[in-house]
Amino acid sequence: MALLLGVLFMVFILLHITGDPVSLMVSRHASPAEIEALREELGFNRPLMVQFADFLTDAVQGDFGRSFRYRQPAMGLVLERIPATIELASAALLMAILMGVTIGILGGSNPNTILDSLARGLGLLGQTIPTFWLGLILIIIFSLHLGWFPTYGRNTFVLFGMHLPDKSIILPAFALSLFTTGQLARFTRSAVLEVMNEEYVTTARSKGLGKMRIYSRYILKNSAIPLISIIGVQFSYLLSGSIYIETIFSWPGLGNLLAEAVSTRDFFLVQATAFFTSLVVIGLHLVTDLIYMLVDPRIRYR
Amino acid sequence: MKKQNKNALFLTLISLFVVSMMLFAGCAGEAEDEVDEVGEEVSEEASVLRVALTTNPNTIEPATGDTRTASNVAWSIFNSLVWLSDDGVLEPSLAEDWSVSEDGTVYTFNLRQGVTFHNGYPFTAEDVVFTWERGLGSDITYREDFVSVVDMNVIDEYTVEVILDEPNSMLLLQMNEHWGILSAQYHDEVGEDGYLQEPVGTGPFKFVEWRTGDRIVLDAYEDYWEEGYPRVDRVIYRPIAESSTRYAALVNDDIDIVSGLGPEQSEEVQNAEGVQLVSYPHDRVFYITFNNMSTGIGTPIEEKLVRQAMSYAVDYDTIIDRIFDGHAERTAGFVVQGNLGYDPGIEPYPYDPEKALELLAEAGYPDGFEIELAGPSDTYINFEQVLQALVGYWGEVGIEVDLQLMESGRFWELQAARELPPLFGDSWSSSTGEAFPRLVGSVGGEDASYAAWLDPVLVEMVREIQLTPDQDERAEVYTNILRYMHEDPPFVYLYQPTAFEGINDRVQNYNPRVSEQYYLKGVSIE
Asked: pTM for this structure?
């Protein structure tokens, strides 16, 4: 709670020290008197603390103010964008886990082989490749040349009354997943490496257990804790919406909305987005902690 | 041996993943074809026009839409009383004809009968009055286009009198630009918010759906009053912010019309199959202003010779060639080609550093001087580079310029507060076919928030435009202003950029105007 308040306060202060949106709201022919009148009407001439207190009072009651630009309640606009971002983040996380963990196990279980170097290389590449550039390259290869996927946007089909994204989600999700893939690959690799040398693995080996059993029962399970925390952190990062990916692929999610809200100084919209994002990050950390308990009975919270 | 097995296992896993991805892609692809995206049936022969938007409209109503993108969508839904044709002539729209009183303060409009809004409500004089009253609201973006009207009289259901307190030669152009006629009755029922979210107009297309950031869907209005329009059954607008993506979408046939392409993309569109390039110079002038209203007071820029010298010192052609690959036009002033009263006889300043040095010496600054220049960053294509080039050219004649680039929001705020340095760069567009908005905003006097140059002679001349309803007389005033502002320049006139758009070969009759406006009612798909 205190954390949430802190984030909101920071966002509020950072927004307001850059000025107010009034000059962007009026047309370029407005007179100084008109600008001042609008500033007064919107309350931007009041002390910052009063404005913040006002914002909080309303926010507690579920009113996050109106977007100046869209002339609509800010939270409504945020809620409208959430499904698209959740879809993209989930798809990206799924891809990242499948690819990252696979690459990591491959590398970690064959230390110092070509396979390992490759795994480390891929992991590093995933984390360092500029997403903006990657997005464009993906569009050029898979949309323009191969024609497999649409070039932009979110297209949906209806299944049991739900609007679900079709294949248009694959390119943006893939581009978004790479950073997480890289991180997961590297973590998995080192976790596997560490566990591999534990005595219980040697014991399991000498018992003559099958490879699969050793991996699933002993190695993966014991490397799971650091992986879960990384996945939790990464998911909250993915859920806050990627400005670059969503812009490149014109994906109607939170990142897209936030980029626009910041550049047009749509204060209440930025604040509503920040509120939602911080809520998600805090919530996911909590969930991650709870999952620890399920996976490792030794961990207990009092 | 064992090791190989294990590797094979993982390889199988990976390939399984890849295959499932493909399958997923395949299934999803089929599903897409079966179900219409909007969830509403559209027959197979229906013609659908897909238009890319460069930004996300804030509203799709003419008086509140804050960008050209927004108003372009809005004018598919709404009509005004008058309409500016492709040739720049004012034509009847919801008004069948109109007359102006001798003194130019009373306009009487005869309204078109039998016109209905998209929800079936009839269009009458009440709706015109309501549109004006609402336009006066303090939160209406283009309020200033409504304030010259002081009263309205409803003579009968289809006749309305518009009263001004002084002549306003821009009134009809302002109506064409921002008076989208709203239904008074519908507004009464749903309120302002409801109206903006599900707008109802009398225009060629009716509102179907708007998912912000994703798409705006409009369908042809079957009872549209203009015979034979519109010519497609459905328009889908999709915001695509990134120009590279717009280009890819066009070439991949994922969209039919895109605007705002860069010079590099324009060349690729030209070479691609199935698409065409559309290009024209924007009605947008880039300039450096001399600021004699605040920080420039007491600096050398108050001197006419200095301002002329600075105009001579810049190699504009090289800037256009190097920074814009030649895709921009020089301009001699704020009245540009295509504007009323444009005179090609008044030529842009040539690049003549010798002359610049002479003028500086004559003005008493043989060794130059130091001055500050500001500009917005990440706002206009390559504008930062242009500003840097200017710093170089002025440096060569001894004028040492300190360049400050600022985030655009901050820049405009300082501009409105008159706190920018003695020199700053920006651009000004005009969409009415006349240079008036650009002139009144930049040199119109103290009341114009973004003005930085005050010259009583110019203020008077700009005012004269407003008071001159006769088009030919007004043209003469414009020419005089152009000449005056060339001889005693309040600005260094830089260039008009070339606009690039791309359309699919199937698209017919698409005619964007120099103001970057377009109307889709006549556009068809082969």
From this structure: 0.82
